[in-house]
Write a structure and sequence with these properties.
With 314 residues, the chain is an alpha/beta fold. 26% of the residues lie in helices and 21% in strands. It folds into three domains: 88 residues, Alpha-Beta Plaits; 108 residues, Rhodanese-like domain (Oxidized Rhodanese, domain 1, 3-Layer(aba) Sandwich); 45 residues, no CATH class.
Length: 314
Amino acid sequence: MIENAANPSPSPAQPYLVAALYHFVAFPRFRDIREPLQALCEAGGVKGTLLLAHEGINGTIAGPDEGVRVVLAYLRAQPEFAGLEHKESRASKEPFLRMKVRLKKEIVTMGVEDIDPMRVVGTYVAPRDWNALISDPDTIVIDTRNDYETDIGLFKGAVDPRIKTFREFPDWVREHEGLHNKPKIAMYCTGGIRCEKATAFMKEQGFDEVYHLKGGILKYLEDVPPEDSLWEGACFVFDERVSVEHGLKEGGHRLCRACRHPLTAEDMTAKTFEAGVSCPHCHDSRTDEDRARFRSREKQMQLARARGSRHLGS
């Protein structure tokens, strides 16, 4: 589970509190709290996404400190979520444009029946012990995230499956018999939730020694100082910050509004980059009609900014 962080203090430069959370638990009444949870978030100026399913809750919210803490208190008041843990960081601008509480079949979609982290899961490894595990020559380190996430950061020596979605991960495992060549499998993801199901799947596939980074990359970047780190690059996050670095400081990446790929400063100097329209990762796959449509959207966004508002199409 994600561990509680020491409360990061608000400041004029970073007034928004960001809380990432997930909790696997049998939750058959998940539909009942959708509307009151949505209303509570909106009343407190809280935005983001929360997913509710039979297997629990997952999501990230952000807003004024008081609003976020009221939402967290409401969740923990539900008997099923009494032990809910969350991860905190801060943002300089609103990380989300709207609030969405959604009902889902899974809180993280792998698409494999009967994978239950509440029944079987890998061994949690604290950030302080992670370096020793992944430096062990008997360990295969696997990044379970999507390719656009791994493009901007990985742990040193990690295997990158280059998957487009988490649904592709089980087939990738089945097709790579070489994963059995070493006794230990170490897995990681952004905040830990993917590895709950990924390690459960690996155990079901007959892998014995399966480990995963507790709290994910975010907890590692918070706890492990840069001078001791085996992390290379930045960590993609699913909000307007785009990426974070050590100490959970906001990274320098921007998001391509056409393909949602994170962009480096170098990407934004390329001839194929046009703000809101194209970037080196998607330019060749888009038609002139696509680009015309994106230009129109970008113009509407600029007009909204000039009025002091935000265009939801962004």
